[in-house]
Amino acid sequence: MAQLLIAVLSIIFVPVVLLISAAVLLATFGQSFGLRRAYVGILLKVFEACKLKVPVTSPGTVEEEDSEEEEEEEGPVKEEKEYQIDELFSRKVDGHSPDENDEVRVIDKDFSLTAFKGLQKPEWEPFKKEFELSDIMYFSKCGVEAIIDDDVTKRFSAEELASWNLLTRTHKPHLFMSVRLTALWCIGCFVRYAVLLPFRLTIFFIGFTYMFFATAFIGFLKEGSIKRQLCYYANMVCFRILCRSFSAVITFHNRENMAKNGIVVANHTSIVDVFMLSHDNCYAMIGQAHNGFLGFLQRALSRATSHIWFERSETKDRSIVARRLRAHIENPSKMPILIFPEGTCINNTSVMMFKKGSFEVTETIYPVAIKYDPQFGDAFWNSSKESFTQHLLGIMSSWALVCDVWYLPPMTRLENEDAVAFANRVKSEIARQGGLVDLDWDGGLKRATVKDSMKEVPQEQYSKILKVD
């Protein structure tokens, strides 16, 4: 048995070594045989076949074929429940029941959202009433609705898919819906974990080793054009090899808008955003200093060129970071600096509030939009639930990493436009190009609690409803 195993390994050893060598060599020169795109095309056909067998919608929705029947059966019951819930605020001051001629204003789910989003306040006069203990139920309902389906929390969880992609993360029960799907899933597990994962880990190790020694060598060189050129090519080669370890298929659009210097801003889904963008250009980076393996990567990169890492807990660093950032972009010989103004990772569905700091430093910004295809794997990194190493292993054990990158035309701050308005305008353009939802919420809510001032808003609005003698 041992001899048979050795014979099999000896047979496959040479082809595997040649395949890995070819992948690294092609990545070094930025070339490809098109095998990854062909592989992604085959996966799409497999997913389409699974979709025909198991049509699936997102959680919380119903199948189209059953929706009409359910509406007919539950329509009257649903209307009755809605009337009971909203009856509190649909009564007139006189106490009589509203008829068809009465102008009744009913507060629905938008009532709670209106309060917290800062939209135009509704007119409260038609709702003047005496306090009743049952009033509490309405606000409890609004609170439950906010927990179930708010615009912030769901941006920090994995993006759900319309159909199963044969990965365990999404829609686990569908594994057992047919023998054919179960067999296909088992084959997929073997391919992903027994074939692709070892292959990808080997390429990642090669790319990381190359980064470690290349940046160490470049760090000993004197500042000048030679060091800048070596740093540029070393970074490009390194990140291209690392992208091959994810089976990344990246489509770049409008390369004529690529920045040569200045500030580049992009929406943020994962640390691998840096890998995707650095596949096509070389950037200096600014961001939070990390520990562990990610911190080791940061320190390795800093040996070759100037990056800006800061600690969130040290408020004094803000002014220092601003000065270093301004000094960086004022030097035309330095590489463009890449910034993720959201300050945290969002789940590839939305763009949240951009911090104004980078928009105060310069008048011109180079926006970039990144959009991943979730069918092949989840690129979102929830740093509060998993480490960077776990995140990388999750990506490497998925099917592939497929994304589109759009280089948008440079945007200049308008006359009399402040940094906040400029940041919002850039954010809206990135959201539009990437097909993402444009949200005004601060991504910092991912780790923060609700402010007392936000809690007081519905209290003030309710006080306007009550009759005061």
UniProtKB/TrEMBL annotation:
Keyword S-adenosyl-L-methionine in annotation: no
Region annotation Disordered: where it falls in the sequence: 58-81
Pathway the protein contributes to: Phospholipid metabolism; Lipid metabolism
Domain of life from the UniProt record: Eukaryota
The keyword Disulfide bond is assigned to this record: no
Start and end residues of each Phospholipid/glycerol acyltransferase domain: 262-373
Ranges of compositional bias, category Acidic residues: 62-74
Keywords: Acyltransferase, Lipid biosynthesis, Lipid metabolism, Membrane, Phospholipid biosynthesis, Phospholipid metabolism, Transferase, Transmembrane, Transmembrane helix
Transmembrane regions: 6-29, 175-195, 201-221
InterPro entries in the record: LPCAT1-like, Plipid/glycerol_acylTrfase
Subcellular location as annotated: Membrane
Xref: Pfam families: Acyltransferase
PANTHER family reported in the protein's UniProt record: GLYCEROL-3-PHOSPHATE ACYLTRANSFERASE 4, ISOFORM D-RELATED, PHOSPHOLIPID ACYLTRANSFERASE
Protein name as it appears in the record: Glycerol-3-phosphate acyltransferase 3-like
Organism per entry: Aplysia californica (California sea hare)
